[in-house]
Amino acid sequence: MPPSTSSDLTLSVNGDKYTLTVDHRTTLLDALRERLDMTGTKKGCDQGQCGACTVLLDGRRSLACLQLAVAAEGREVTTIEGVAEGERLHPVQQAFLDLDGFQCGYCTPGQICSAIAVIEEHAAGWPSAVTGDVRPEAGPPPLTPEEIRERMSGNLCRCGAYVSIVQAVARAAQETKGAAA
Fold first, then answer.
1. Using alpha carbons only, what angle is made at residue 161 by residues 160 and 167, rounded to the nearest 5 degrees?
2. Residue 43 CB contacts under 8 Å (≥ 6 apart), including other chains
3. CA atoms within 13 A of residue 4's CA, in its CB half-sphere
């Protein structure tokens, strides 16, 4: 008997458990969109170059088009549908709305998921390619527009809403920092 090309798996998405039978080659993006009807995560290039499919995997950014669904078993997947707390928007979502950090909106879910991770990475002191002093004792660098642009560079916006996106990330970082203090 030939080996099976599918598996039963349980995905934890936005705090809920889903059991699916999927082909081993099914991407997390396709499982979310086609099997779980979570269409907030967008399929852009399907090659990991645009960031439209960005989700949080155990709190870290992940391109769902490059992640196999079977490899996400036992990990917490957070999509755009799961970042708000009930009716209260996440600070990044609110900043995107307040500052028009989107135009057509297609890339916005991936931008927001990425921005959430960017703020957490920055707060944890992770350097970027433009960070001047990368010594751990230097602490987090200032979250300048250059830092934000570099950290968000994996997410493309064909409409060109970058100025507002940078402003929205900066505002959300300040609000998140203030709420944590």
1. 140
2. 29, 33, 52, 53, 65
3. 7
Nearest one of 64, 118, 122 to 95, comparing CA atoms: 118
Q: How far is Cα 178 from Cα 181, in angstroms, rounded to an integer?
A: 5
Q: How far is CA 161 from the centre of its chain?
A: 17
pTM assigned to the model: 0.93
Contact 41, 55 (CB under 8 A): yes
Taking the C-alpha atoms of residue 170 and residue 31, their distance in angstroms, rounded to an integer, is: 32
Predicted confidence (pLDDT) per residue in 4-62, tens digit: 899 999 999 999 999 999 999 999 999 999 999 999 999 999 999 999 999 999 999 99
**Res 178 pLDDT > 80:** no
Burial (CB count within 10 angstroms: exposed 0-12, middle 13-18, buried 19+), residue 121: middle
Kind plus residue range of the DSSP H or E element containing 162: helix 162-180
Strand order in the sheet with 76-78: 16-23, 6-13, 76-78, 54-57, 60-63
- Which 3 state secondary structure label does DSSP give 91? helix
If residue 55 lies in a helix (H) or strand (E), which one and from where to where? strand 54-57
